Amino acid sequence: MLPPDAHPPINLHENPSSIYNTWLNNLPQHVKDMVLRKVPECTIQSQFLKIKEGTHFVVPTFLEVTSVLPGSAFWSIFFFLMLLTLGLSTSVGLIHSIITSLQDTFSSLRKQPKLLTVGISLLMFLCGLFFTRPSGTYFIRLLSEYCIILPIIFILICENIAVAWAYGAKRFLEDLTDLLGRPISPIYGWLWCFVSPLVLLVLFAAIVFQLCMKPLVYTAWDSSSVRLLFQAQGPPGSGARPFNPLTY
Question: How much is the pLDDT for 57?
Fold first, then answer.
């Protein structure tokens, strides 16, 4: 795909950054422009910005900030401890909601609460192992972009209708008054009955419209590219020509 005058280096694996930039800067301008149309410019900043757009945005951003602060090791440890506690608190709340729902539905499960907690935790742990595989990040992106948004909005709409209209916003306000021991403003009932359903419906329609207008694009692992890479490199010790990513 590159022009014949480009002559890409074959020893790029030895010192990629230096060799690549030296080769690119020494090209004539018209050849360099043609190369840049096919090969993106290799800079650490551009690659780092791609990482920050993914699911791990907070980690590289914080590490970038703490790396220039005094005592960066302390702040890094403190930051990861914070992430650990946040993850544990989220997991505890999720498991507690599942346990409460199951115990309310099946009264027999109330006899062994500890066994139920261990069983649900073990099941969630086994399900989570599916996303720790090398391809797990692709499934996380697939779920977060296409499989979770619509069900969450739909569940919120059903919950709002069930509380505000089926059970009744007035009765729910009375229950909150008895629970908190103080009167609740009636404006909350008006928001639950009219504003919240309207906003949720508009949001649901906007998401459906966006999904219909935007083509479904999913970046996945291409096994054919892997086979090409190993065929170019050859087995260890075979003396094959080193793999040159500029030719693919």
Answer: 62
With CA atoms as reference, report the closest residue to 9 among 30, 39, 52: 39
CA-closest candidate to residue 220, choices 125, 129, 145, 128: 145
CA distances from 142 to 38, 126, 204, 208 (A): 28, 20, 19, 16
**Two tokens, residue 195:** 């504003």
Q: Which has the closest alpha carbon to 16: 244, 229, 228, 233?
A: 244
**Phi-psi region at 160: left, alpha or beta (left = phi > 0; alpha = psi -120 to 50):** alpha
3-state secondary structure of 28: coil
d(C-alpha 161, C-alpha 129), whole Å? 36
- Read off the DSSP letter of residue 130: G
d(CA 168, CA 128): 38
Mean pLDDT of 35-43: 68
Report helix angle 72-105 to 113-128, nearest 10. 120
pLDDT at 140: 83
Mean pLDDT of 199-224: 79
Measured in whole angstroms, the distance separating CA 86 from the mean position of its chain's CA atoms is 16
**What pTM was estimated for this model as a whole?**
0.51
| CA nearest neighbour of 173 among 152, 151, 193 | 193
